[in-house]
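Can anyone check this?
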Amino acid sequence: MSLSLSTCWNSWKHHDGRSMVEEILGLGFDTIEISHGIRSSQLEGILAARVKYQFAISSVHNFLPTPVEVQTDSPDCYEFTSLRAADRDRATKLSRITIDWAAELGAPFVVVHTGRIRELKLTAPLQKMVADGKFLTRAFVKKRLDAIQAREKVSEKYNRLVLGCLSELAAYAGKKGVRLGIENREHYEAAPLEREMVAFFQSLNSPHVGYWHDFGHAQIKHNLGFFDHFQWLEKMSPLLIGCHIHDTRWPFRDHCPPFTGDTPLEKLVSLLPKKCATVFEMSPRTEAADIQKAAAAWKQLFNCR
């Protein structure tokens, strides 16, 4: 599959979906991810551009389009981990709509955020300690252990909520010829957590769901000392269907152009399956020239289109 660029980079500055697509195609990409943050008013232009330019769509990111009641780009506005049944129902309904759009656009994958355990506040305090120069101090190690224990007490309940929603959505996606990619998140409050994912996928037991690896999110947790990025990706490689590619500058600045940060991309990319979707997910602050430079280096280094 060709290298793709996510519309999260430029959707904010285009009222018209066609001009948004044209800007990405102008950088030399022939494959695009239609990301979150897309308004209903932009979809008509995307469809028109698809007819005219015949570009490929690697993936669609939940939720598409942005819910009418949500005024900002907020892919976590509704979560499968919510203790409110109405919110979980809304997340499920919006996900079905996204799957419909993926089928309409010919996208093979829908990238899904499953949610967080909102009652816990674990990641931010640890990140502050790192920023304050306290990484791997005795106080930091204790705080990290406390975070692990706090999450362990409640994780099963939240994972069950997610499984309940995804079981229904997996069956719906299968009928539409679409696969769901469950994305790893940067927060330790995420559900499921990395060490729970293999069992989670086994419980889900669906050919219509796979793992979506976000390089930046994994690197952030690596930098917090929660796991080894290489070992984690190696473990999940058999379940991997796609990835979001961006670099991370120590300790937590992600969505940087590849090869401008500290993520050992060459070592990690060797673990990707051949048919894995590869999507550049760049910060809106990224200059177009920096994306082109990174894409050229990526294609040369990894011998891809």
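Reply from J.R.: I decoded it. The mean pLDDT is 97.
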